Structure formats: C-alpha cells, structure tokens
Amino acid sequence: MKKKIISLILLCTLVLSTTLWGCGSSKDTAADSADTSKEASDETETTDGKGGKTKITVLRPGDQEKVEAFMEPAIEQFEKDNPDIDVEIMYESWTGWIQKYPTSFEAGTQPDVIFWWDNKMNDSSAHEHLVKLDDYLSEDFFSQIPDSIWSLVNTSGLDGTYYVPSSVDTLVLYYNKEVFEAAGLDPEAPPATWDELLAAAKDIKEKAGVPGIGVPAITGAEVLEEFVGMFINQATDAPILDDKSMPLFDTDEGLEAVKFVEQLVPYVQDSPTEYGRGELRPLLRDGGVGMLIDGPWGVAAYTAAFGENLDESKIGIAKIPLAPNGKEIAWAGTNGWIATRDETAEASAKLIEYLMSPEVIIEHHLAYGSAPLYESEFDNPSFQYDFWKVFYDEAQDYKLYGMIGKDSATPAAYYTALEEVWQQLILGQLGAEDALKAAAEAAEGVTSRNQ
To answer: Which residues cross the membrane (predicted)?
Structure first.
C-alpha cells in the first residue's frame, strides 16, 4: 500500500556545493550544463492556439549528456503516444539548479515537471507550487513502488501525494580486496558488524600501511552528516530530527554511535576535510584506502576502471555493517518527480506516469548508475551482477532512514550546522560527548531561528 503525502529531496542530499545523488544522490558531480534558451514560463502554457495542445516543460537536473541519453527518446515516444501534449526538455546541472530554483519558483518560471529532492517538499520557495497528484494517478500506479521506499518520504504537513520517488540510493560498504589481502583479511568476508568494521580498519592501517576507511568530511557537501548520521540512525533506530525538527540523537544510543565514529578516527585518511566521496573513490580504486561507505553513485568510478562486472574485480560491495543492536538499518535517499502547476497538472501527471514506466525508468537508472527500483530491472544484462543486489536488497529489506530537514523550510541549514560539529569530531578537536551535545544544540539553534 502506498504511503501518501510525500516529501522529496537524492544521496543521494544537497547543499549549494553538493553535486550529486546519490544518491545520489541526487549527488551528481557533473559540471554546469547548458540552459535552454527560454525560461520555463515562456515555454509553459495551457494551449498553444494551434490544435489545442497542452505545452509543458520537464527538468531532470544533472549532466546534460546523461539526461539526453534517456530523456530525449522517452519524450519523443511520449509525444507520439500523447499527440495533444508538447514537452520541452530543459537542461541544468545540479549545481546550477540548486542556485536557481528558489528564484525560479518565486518568479513562477519553474518547469512543470521536476526531478526533486525528498527533503525539500516543505522548502519555503517551492511548497506552495506543488500539485496534489492523487486525482491524476491511480492506486495501482503508486503500489508498484515498494513500501520501504515510500517510508522514506515524509508525510507530515501535506494532505495527499505530491511526490513520486523514482530512484533510491542506499549506503553500502565498498572495499578493496587487494588491500584486504595485504592486511591478512578475507576478501570474501567483509565486515558485517561495527566491531568487525573497526577491527578491519585497524588491521588495514597497521598491516597494509594505508588508511583503513575513507571519511568524506569536505565542507558543504552534506556527506559528512550522512556518514555520521547513518551510524546514529543504526544505534537509535530513529531519524536524526523529529517532525518538529528537534534532535532525537542526544541519548545513550546516540552517544554510542558518536563514540564509534570517534574510534574510527585514527584509521581515516589524512586531511579528511579535503575529501568528499568523489575524491575518495580513486583512492579506493587504486588501493590508497581500504574501505569506503558510499552509494550507487560510486559504481561508475569502478566500472570505468574494471568493467561492468565488479563481481570479478578487486572492488567488493557489501551491506552496511550492523550496530550492536543487530537491527538491519541503513541510510537511503530518494529523488523523484513533482508537478508544479495546476493548469497543466493532468498533462504533467501523464508524463510522470510515463517516466516511471519500467521501460523508461531502467534507461534513467542505467544512464545515471542508480540502483534498480523495480525487480523487473534485473532482467537487463547490466543489472544481473550480484553487487547490484546489495543495493536492491537493502532498499527492500532494511529499515531506511534518509535525509534530514524534511519538515523545515530551510533543510540545508541543518546539514551546515551539524557538519561543523562532526568535522571537529573527525579532526580530534571534540570528544564524542562534547560533539553530541554541540550537535544537539546546533540543530536546536536552526529550529529556533526558523520559528
């Protein structure tokens, strides 16, 4: 059964400098791509006066070449199937769109259909423009998306379905098998618990002579909060913030997680604040670090080096090691589709339904390296390798916690505030207890300023 009343964000998690997703996420690292020559408001009108066609615009932020690869043939077929609808594809990088979307919404020039974030449904600039999709899309349509994915989408403060998740990006453990062998570890038995993860990081550092685990602590990319936050989610079995955006992690279980991260610090790479996930992937690929927690966005970096069958490569991919409570919990982010104008809602919903069809969504996922959302995607040869099942199984079977700030008009502010604290923890400037207290105060401060 679908979870209604949805809020979106990606991985993949984004702030102004984030180029992701993931996840990822929604976390695309593409350079700025070209804009279309006209703003969305110039392209959007109910009819064009010639044959009564409805004109709509669609934007999937990201690398233009990747977007073109799946979007252009999809729209060509959609227009053939729906001759009463004209669709204009707009192109914009994630970085460009993050900078532009507030003023675009405020000016009313936003595209009709947008690939959005699951933690920005309450964003102050976009919230009032979102279209309720329940009257246009069927229960059967919604039910094809797994319940575990719907559970990531916040339902507070909305009275219906406003967002359709199209990709889900879970964090998994990547590891270099050759580094494992050099450290005397079994490359076919990756760490399955926190204790095993810590022991492996220590052995890699001491016996193989390279950092045991890479930590993405770069400023402004949201990734450090997701790294630390995932361990907190696992230990507390709770989101980072409650539905009033107050911290839930200032507990004994939260302290257990932060202390564990503190124990990892001696085994991370030098100058951790200079590294995001993108900078750490070449280190893992080349044996410069033993392990890395990352999403499916990282797959392309390794298939480019070793071919698409990573099962036979030196890169291993395993489920996230479990906390001492033994609960199967992982971090995940989603991106998906929203419609933004009531006057073109019916046409926009038809396009969303088409973009979510199995034959189109698989091309989208293949273009971006996203993990499969539908089980039918595994029929494609590119998804028949075992490592893809790791992402899929986590998304289907684990309890998932995702991006923070979903109930706030300023979600990015929480990432910024918590990142500053977690950086001090990783750099050894704060101990676990002080870091936990400072993080809770930082989150409370953001919430207080929003009131």
So the answer is: none
